[in-house]
Each structure stands twice: as structure tokens, then as C-alpha cells.
Amino acid sequence: MERFKKLLVFTGTEEPESAIARAVVLAMENGASLTLMDVIKPIPRILRLFKGSATPDELQRLLIEDHRAKLRDLVSEFDESEIDIDIVVTVGDPAMEVIREVMRNEHDLVIKAADGFRGAGRVVGSVARALLRMCPCAMLLLKPQVHGDFDQVLAAIDVDRQDTPHKKLNEAIAELSLEIARSDDATVHWISAWEMPLEVPFELPLESPLQPSLGEGQMDDVFSIHAENIRTHLGELYGETGIQGVTPEIHVQRGPAAEMIAEMVEEVQADLLVMGTVCRTGIAGLLIGNTAESVLAGVSCSVLALKPPGFVSPVGGEIVESHVAS
């Protein structure tokens, strides 16, 4: 992940240590800057009605300093790492404040440990979901126990869509998955899931003249040809990356993308899923794509989520386009 040069770790989680440790290593490898950020709630308004030894503003300031001190303690073990670690503590809504910090200082990767991860727990909570929807840069959601290298990397690539934003996003997903696998000496898998239009419920009325009358054997031939075309596209994509020393294992699955990706995560025991999170671009406030939403609700591994070029964040009244780092 050499492309990421301005890292931001959100520490307002139950177990931020794993995210901090991973970020420090990444910053050292990349020569990147590193910022730790926490967000605290505002002092309740009702406290402003009481007169005491400290004003609400003073209490807020003391609370901020307390959180700063705790963050300094968390990173004290990395004092000899020879990297400068900035600490930012703000007041407000966690997701909104993180996104504003990304905009102000042009961070290109947000790292966050998943909250409430127990057994079959999922990695996406409310803060993570808001960041995935509206943050203009890439995001790495880590299982709390993850400190070292990844072993099995799975990249979800949709080659059926060949418009420019999707092609750029596919290139970034492919390149990052290969870079991580090469760096961590991991096995990398690429999955592309697809459905024929006739398999999608209500895609066409049964009486439609567009409904082809193909026999079972002919349909199997159509499926085989389409699957082979996808494999060809993935092979071409691999060649275009120019990355040597690691070769992806290709998986072409017919079925709903969210289901196929989640099943493949379990099948290959992936500990990192690399995927895009938005299907369309150019619309401020556009929600995370339906497929990505379903996938992220069902996986229990770490996730590296990328935005396509041209994605616009609606936060703070500022228009900041995402950039797929290269």
C-alpha cells in the first residue's frame, strides 16, 4: 500500500491499539505522515445552567486534554519509530468530524478498528457505515486482533461494467490487492460475480418478445462463454497492472454478487477484502452501493474500501472529489 502517504487513524473505538500498530508500520514503510484522531461528545447543554468551579467550556477543554493525554500514552511505545505522529481531538459527531479532517488535510487513507467484533460479529457499525458512504478517501476497517501481515487477500472486481469510473476503480482494486499480497507474502484471490439478465427477477416480463427461447444446453453455452469472457478481462487487467512476483487466483461465480463475495470470503478464509463502495459518481451524498452495503453487512474479515474517481462528499458544505491514489 505504498500509494498512501497521509494516514488518519480514528481511535474512538473499543480497541484502537491494532489500528494504531498497523498504521505505524504502514507509515514507516511508506514514509507517510500519521495522525491519530479522537472525537468527543459536546458537554450537555443542561450543565450550562449550573454554576460551579469550572464552566462548561473549561470542562470541555479539560476533557479534550484528557483524551490527548490518553492518545499520547497509546503511542508512547512507538517513540523510537522515527515518525512524527500528530494528535487531533475534536468535539462533535465522530463520522462528520473525521470526514472534515480528511478534507482539511487531504488524508488519503482512514484506518479504523471495528467495534463490537465478537465471534461472528461484523466489521461495519454506524460510524464506519457513515464513513464508507461519505468519506472521500479510502478506508481500512481492521478486525481488532489484526496486528501483523495478511495471509489471504480477496479482491472483488466487477468487469461487466466498462465505463471509465468503474475501470479506474477496478484498476485500483487490482493493483492494491497485488501490492498487499506481495508485501505481506499473502495469497491473493480475485472474484468476479455475475448474473445473466434473465436470471434477475422481474428483469423482463415472461411474455416479452425479448425473452429468448433457449434450451438448457444453449443456456449452459451462454453461461460458459460469458464466464470465459470475464476470465479474459481479469487476465488483461492483471497484465495491465505490471506487478510482478504475485499472481491472483481467479474465481468467476454466477449468482448475486453480495452472496458470492461473502461465500468466497469464508471459502478462502480471507482476512482482507478489497472492494469498491460506490457504484455511481458525481452526486453529492450518494449512498453506498447496494451490493457493497450487502457485502459489508455479511463479512467478518478486515475490509479495504475504495471510492471511484469523481466521488463527491457532501459533508461540511465542501465539495472534495476523491482520488484513487496511484
UniProtKB/TrEMBL annotation:
<comment type="function">
    <text>Required for resistance to DNA-damaging agents.</text>
</comment>
<feature type="domain" description="UspA">
    <location>
        <begin position="151"/>
        <end position="307"/>
    </location>
</feature>
<protein>
    <recommendedName>
        <fullName>UspA domain-containing protein</fullName>
    </recommendedName>
</protein>
<keyword id="KW-0963">Cytoplasm</keyword>
<dbReference type="Pfam" id="PF00582">
    <property type="entry name" value="Usp"/>
</dbReference>
<dbReference type="GO" id="GO:0005737">
    <property type="term" value="C:cytoplasm"/>
</dbReference>
<dbReference type="InterPro" id="IPR006016">
    <property type="entry name" value="UspA"/>
</dbReference>
<feature type="domain" description="UspA">
    <location>
        <begin position="4"/>
        <end position="143"/>
    </location>
</feature>
